[in-house]
Amino acid sequence: MKSTWFEVARPQKIDLNDWSQHFRLVRDEQIKEFNYYHNPEWGIYLSPPATFMVYGARELKRLKFDNSLASLRMWGFVFNESERLFRAKQMGKRVIATMGDLGTVPVIIMAFPNCIPFYPECIWWTPFFKESTVLLDTATELGIPEAACFSKATLAAFHKKAYFPKPDLIFASTGASCDDYSCIMQLVNDLGYEMLWLEIPFRRHNDEQYPDRFEEYLISEYERVWNKMVELTVINDKTGLIPSIKKANRLRSLAERIKQLTYEAPITPLPALELMTIEFGNLYGYADLDEWLDIVEMINETVAKRVEKGIGVLKQNAIPIAWITPSADPLLLNLVEDCGLRIVGTEYVINQALVPIEENVEPFRALARSFMKASLIGSTQERIKRIIEGVKNERIKGVLVTNMLGCSHCAMETRLIEKMLSKVPVLSIDVPVPFGITEQLRTRIAAFAETLR
Amino acid sequence: MTEILNPRERFGLLVIDEKPDRCNIIPLITSHAATVAGIKLKEYYTDGEAMAKAQITAIEEYEHDAISIFSEVGIIAEAMGSEFNYPDDDLPVLRIPALTKFDIDKLKIPDPNKDSRLPVYLEAIEYAYSAVGDKIPILAYVPAPFTTGMMLSDPNQFLLDTIRNPEQIKKIIEISLEAAIEFSYEIINAGGLPILVDPLASGSVISPKAYQEFALPGEQGLIKFLHRYDFDVILHICGDTTPILDLLLLTGADLISLDKVELNLAIERLAPKMRIIGNFNTTKLGFGSPDGIASQVREMVKHGIKAEKGYIASTGCEVPIRAPTGNVKVFISAAKEAGWFLD
Question: How high is the pLDDT of residue A1?
Answer without folding.
Answer: 43
